Amino acid sequence: MLLPIILSGGAGTRLWPVSREAHPKPFIRLPDGQSLLQKTFLRAAGLPDVTEILTVTNRDYYFQTKDEYAACPAQAKAVYLLEPCGRNTAPAIALAALYAAQAHGPQTQLLVLPADHLIENLSAFAAAVATARELAGQGKLVTFGIQPTAPETGFGYIEAGEALATKVGAGRTARRFVEKPDAATAAQYLASGNFFWNSGMFCFTAGDLLAAMETACPEVLATARACWAAADTTVAPIEFPREAFLAQPDISIDYAVMEKAGNVAVVPCDLGWSDIGSWNALGNLVSADEQGNRILGEALAIDSQNKAVSRSKCNELTKVLFEVEGLGHEEFGRAKPVEALAGSGIELPGDGI
Description:
It contains ten helices and 16 strands. Helix 3 packs across helix 6, helix 3 crosses helix 7 and helix 6 packs across helix 7. The longest helix is centred in the first third of the chain and has 16 residues. The radius of gyration is 21 Å and the shape is globular.
């Protein structure tokens, strides 16, 4: 069985005001009308052997997430683990693995997917997952390495080692994980051909992950088990008590496990992937007009060139039209409100990201 784990939430700061704490990036509507969360759910539901999808999210997003999934034409059953607050990826994935081991057995394969990434090449994604599943069946902890297209300084990288034997696709050992590099180092990584962007997607069995955590980060696993024991796991959705949940360390799965384990593999892939982490990335989802502007929603650009413009409903009373400066440059653009329609009297800052 393949159980996709969708990690959904976020502070909603990088794409303000389209993304904000009450409406984080997974809920952003793309030009085709679907949210990033819906696309992630449908992408997972379309894989072989998927009958259930587990979403780990904040309790405040539960009903909104249910509504998003209800609009998706997919047959997979949606189940939920509800967090009282954000606590990073290692605790979230540990709790998901405990759920999978209890509900379906330790040999259940988990496919961890961030809810706010975009993947445009679905056939390449399915092929990469097939390779990852084969490696996970061999006891590997698998990550997906995105083929870099530029010397990006905003992503972490994975250095790949020797090739691994697979019947489907190509896998390699993961030699090391490296932090976001400076420009010169990123250029070296790109030229070497052995470094890949760290996508934050993973595949492993529930049992293998829990065993790795027992060795690499026993405190994370122990506090996750205590949190699991403190919750009522006989009801749906499963909601974790705040005190037990906050006892867990705030640490990523990369730091806690993947950088320490000796059985880590990487599947290099070219998926048409984007983390939609900047206004440039969001603006690139629509075609530019004659002046180089990329307009999301209904807007009229006057004396404007090479900018992203979006019309966003920030709440029931206030609508903000804002543009992004710097589109087309290497640095991220800055969101600047250019018009606030009357309604609430709320003063909005001049710079939003």
